[in-house]
Structure formats: C-alpha cells, structure tokens
Amino acid sequence: MTAEVTTPRRRSEKSRVAIVGATRDLLLERGFDKLSIEAVAARAGVGKQTIYRWWPSRHALVADVILEDADRILRPIVTTDDVTADVCRWTVTLATALTTSRGHAMLRILTIA
Fold this sequence. Notes:
6 helices; 0% strand
C-alpha cells in the first residue's frame, strides 16, 4: 500500500481578488456586523467553501482586507534629509486616506471587531 501525496491547492488569484473586492465593497455598504460569508461568496461569484478554504473565519477575511488597504495607505514615502518634512508629508497622506469613506469604514471596523 503506497501513501498518496497530495499537494495543497493553490489559490486562484482571480478568485482571491474577487473575494477581497467583494468583502471591501460589502464592508462599506453594510459594515462588519452585517457582513456574511454567504454575501461575500455571492458577490464574488465563488462558493463559501472557497472562502473558508483560505480564511477560517469572517474576522480573518476582514483582517486580510484591512491589511491590504493599510499597505496601500501606509506605503513608504520618498524620504529626504528633512525628517520633519517627511513625517509631515506622511501624516497628511495618512489623514487624507483616513478621511475618505473607505478610511472611515476601516477605522470603524478596527474599533468594533
């Protein structure tokens, strides 16, 4: 009897992008409390099992979406020899991002979840 070696299935990037986008949109529309995996799956055009295969819970999925947005918001700035100016420029960029509807939603989710 030989043991069969199985390789884990890789994520489909197309599905991942659809799931993350659907989650982001639904968070903005409904908020965290009214977000469901079923709604994300329907909006993304994937099965619930696809989502649960990659994210163990709604909280884990939302955390990934927030981290992805945070990476864009908090991206490094071009630094100069003037540290004060660099920090001020980064702060303005952060404040600008957080005062958008997406930024407000992200802050609400972070304080609720």
